[in-house]
Amino acid sequence: MKSKIILNLTLAVFVMLSLTGCKKKSSKKPAEPNEASMSQSTITQEGANTIPEVKSIEQYKAEAEKEITKENYQDELNSLEKEIEQDISRP
How many CB atoms lie within 10 A of CB 76? Predict the structure, then answer.
C-alpha cells in the first residue's frame, strides 16, 4: 500500500515538473518599428491600392499585330534576338 502511494506521488511530481519545466522565457523584447520598416509598410499599403494591370494573351497578340508589320518584322526579330542574347550573357 505504501509503495502505491509513493509511486503515485512520484508520478504526480514528475508530471508537474515536466509540464512546468518546458516553458522557456524569452528575454527578447518585441522589436520596435524603425523608419525603414515604417516606410516599407507605407509603400506596401500604397502599392496595395494600385494593382498593375496584367495583360492577357489576346491583348499581347493584338498589340503585336499592330506593332509588327511586313515592313518592320525583320527589325523586330533582330531586336528580340539582341534582348535574348543580353539576357543569356547576364550572370
Answer: 13
- For 37, counting Cβ atoms within 10 Å of its Cβ (0-12 exposed, 13-18 middle, 19+ buried), the class is exposed
Give the per-residue SS3 of 4-73.
HHHHHHHHHHHHHHHHHHCCCCCCCCCCCCCHHHHHHHHHHHHHHHCCCCCCCHHHHHHHHHHHCCCCCH
Q: Which residue has the higher pLDDT, 62 or 45?
A: 62
Return d(Cα 25, Cα 54) in angstroms, integer.
48
Cell of 22: 518546458
What pTM was estimated for this model as a whole? Answer: 0.37
Backbone angles phi, psi at 70, to 5 degrees: -65, -30
